User: Which sequence fits this backbone?
């Protein structure tokens, strides 16, 4: 199958096109002036146009029936019937909304309305003819030709106006802008819409050349004049002949494996790779079909869409007061978005960083949720301030996401990790229980499992404090903890760091060639946290299905390639050594823990003994050690509480 070459328009063709566009602009201007107005004048103008067209077609039908030599008696019949027939057609066109629609926007719904209107009138005339009322109905040949001509004249008139408007909105590539030739991967609805939009807006400097699709039913056909080739394996040969600059992945639900395959082909042929938005973003109006973007590492590491029990989450949150701590962070801000989507009565957002709180408040307020959100600058470690928050707003559901999470920094400042991650969490559980909170969900981390860092151990002790509060006599709050791995693109994570290093020309720093981590998207992890809140019975620790671990060095190579560079050639990868407190790989559970499935296939419940009856005493001791400011004493106290903790050697 050959690949057609697209050549530039010649001088004559360009001049002719510009003249036609000028004529179309004049015609549309006159039409908009006299027919495209508003109210009664507009309706009267459309009525007149339709009436003249339909009457003319009725007469032409008679002429065609008798080969342009109508017998006198049928001339009289035509003149007698033209008024009632045209009146009936106009009445039906009005009933199908044809007078209300914009004339130069003609789609399938309008065409169906025209066909149905004409069909009803023609059907009535046929019924009269079969009823032997010969003088009351035209001959069958006239009825048939009148139907075809009436549908044709109205549809053709409106379609010509649509074509004229499309010509006006279609431009050529602007002078000085290099036109990028793209191949669209996927010939489905999304690909068709993208091609149509690009063809109508040539001035953007993007020109679609062909489609690639694996569907045998599509291969060999064309869409909007663009050929459909396939399967995907033939793309390198086809793209080389057609001189493709970019591949645009128009498979909004394509999985990471498929995206990675296409990116690899693009790398082989020296083309950039773009991707269209997801169906969810398109449906919500966040983006348009033509707003495709470069493929990001999240597209390669992301996983299949998580199916959530939206009804169960809605019953938990709807019309409740929900408190989110750390509301300006990566996890906290996404919690606020997803919680707000479930229509709580009030969303109380606690955050100690002013700018982060301002950003999430502004975003949510733009969605007309300003009346339901309460942004509060408060440090969760300030127990008096948090007590005032609980007393004033009386939250029913609490999601505790506030934390210090940067491993090397917390290794240097263990007191801050313990104050914010551990002691503050314990104090919040006490406040939640005292104020009758229904559910308290603590966002933990996989670094709490057999911890080797201060940060991980501080979160593990916090888990113990959460479980201990569940068993306090008289407690009615359901306390839960949720562990998961690294979040793609979160603040302070490796991906933003790699992006910055690549933008600076390298080197990209990786601690160790065997370093591996689990990754989840922010949306996925937060959705599962909300789902977990509906599953807990109290005192449990849940762990999310984090998929397969990813080598950090492989992640660095993929990000370099996505940026258009070659690893170790254009951008150096430099190994810097494992930092204090880091492990080469994260574990999924403690040696004494086992897990069991829950009602959701991506969430597991950890089974372990809860023996934390003396939590108040060891928390008090830990607080005293923190006050002393002695890092060695702090680590010793932490190891006493978490025997599996292996502190880094100073």
Assistant:
């Amino acid at each position: 199958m050959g690949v057609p070459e697209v050549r530039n328009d010649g001088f004559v063709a360009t001049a002719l096109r510009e003249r036609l566009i000028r004529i179309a602009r004049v015609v549309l201007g006159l039409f908009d002036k006299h027919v495209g107005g508003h109210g009664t004048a507009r309706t009267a103008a459309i009525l007149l146009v339709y009436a003249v067209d339909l009457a003319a077609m009725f007469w032409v039908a008679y002429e065609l029936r008798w080969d342009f030599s109508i017998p006198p008696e049928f001339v009289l019949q035509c003149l007698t019937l033209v008024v009632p027939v045209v009146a009936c057609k106009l009445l039906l066109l009005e009933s199908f909304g044809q007078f209300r629609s914009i004339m130069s926007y003609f789609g399938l719904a309008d065409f169906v309305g025209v066909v149905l209107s004409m069909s009803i009138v023609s059907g009535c005339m046929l019924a009269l003819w079969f009823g032997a009322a010969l003088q009351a109905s035209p001959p069958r040949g006239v009825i048939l030709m009148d139907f075809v001509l009436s549908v044709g004249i109205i549809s053709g008139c409106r379609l010509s106006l649509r074509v004229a408007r499309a010509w006006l909105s279609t431009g050529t590539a602007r002078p000085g802008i290099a036109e990028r030739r793209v191949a669209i991967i996927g010939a489905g609805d999304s690909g068709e819409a993208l091609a149509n939009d690009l063809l109508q807006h040539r001035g953007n400097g993007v020109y679609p050349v062909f489609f690639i699709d694996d569907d045998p039913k599509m291969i060999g056909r064309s869409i909007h004049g663009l050929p459909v080739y396939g399967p995907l394996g033939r793309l390198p040969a086809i793209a080389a002949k057609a001189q493709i600059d970019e591949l645009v992945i128009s498979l909004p639900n394509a999985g990471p494996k498929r995206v990675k395959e296409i990116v690899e082909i693009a790398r082989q042929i020296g083309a950039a790779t773009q991707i269209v938005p997801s169906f969810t973003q398109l449906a919500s109006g966040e983006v348009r079909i033509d707003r495709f973007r470069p493929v990001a590492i999240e597209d390669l590491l992301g996983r299949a869409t998580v199916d959530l029990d939206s009804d169960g989450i809605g019953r938990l949150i709807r019309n409740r007061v929900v408190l989110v701590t750390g509301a300006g962070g990566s996890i906290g801000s996404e919690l606020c978005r997803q919680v707000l989507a479930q229509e709580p009565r009030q969303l109380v957002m606690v955050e100690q960083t002013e700018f982060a709180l301002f950003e999430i408040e502004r975003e949510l307020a733009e969605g007309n949720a300003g009346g339901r959100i309460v942004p509060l600058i408060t440090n969760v470690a300030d127990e008096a301030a948090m007590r005032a928050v609980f007393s004033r707003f009386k939250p029913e559901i609490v999601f505790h996401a506030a934390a210090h999470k940067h491993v090397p920094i917390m290794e240097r400042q263990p007191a801050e990790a313990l104050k914010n991650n551990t002691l503050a969490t314990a104090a919040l559980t006490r406040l939640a229980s005292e104020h009758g909170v229904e559910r308290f969900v603590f966002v933990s981390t996989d670094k709490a499992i057999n911890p080797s860092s201060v940060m991980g151990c501080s979160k593990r002790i916090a888990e113990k404090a959460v479980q201990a509060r569940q068993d306090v006599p008289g407690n009615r709050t359901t306390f839960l903890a949720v562990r998961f791995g690294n979040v793609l693109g979160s603040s302070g994570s490796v991906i933003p760091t790699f992006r910055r290093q690549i933008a600076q020309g390298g080197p990209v720093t990786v601690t160790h060639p065997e370093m591996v981590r689990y990754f989840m998207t922010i949306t996925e992890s937060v959705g599962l946290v909300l789902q977990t809140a509906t599953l807990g019975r109290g005192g449990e620790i849940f762990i999310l299905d984090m998929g397969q671990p990813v080598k950090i060095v492989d992640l660095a190579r993929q990000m370099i390639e996505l940026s258009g560079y070659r690893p170790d050639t254009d951008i150096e990868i430099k190994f810097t050594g494992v930092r204090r407190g880091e492990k080469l790989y994260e574990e999924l559970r403690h040696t004494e823990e086992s897990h069991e499935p829950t009602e959701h296939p991506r969430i597991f419940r950890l089974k372990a003994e809860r023996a934390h009856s003396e939590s108040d005493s060891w928390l008090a001791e830990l607080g005293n050690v923190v006050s002393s400011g002695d890092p060695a004493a702090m680590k010793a106290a932490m190891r006493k509480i978490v025997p599996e903790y292996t502190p880094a050697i100073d």
Notes: Confidence is low (pLDDT under 50) at residues 1-14, 279-290. The chain has three domains: 11-169, 180-295, 310-487+521-546+593-641.
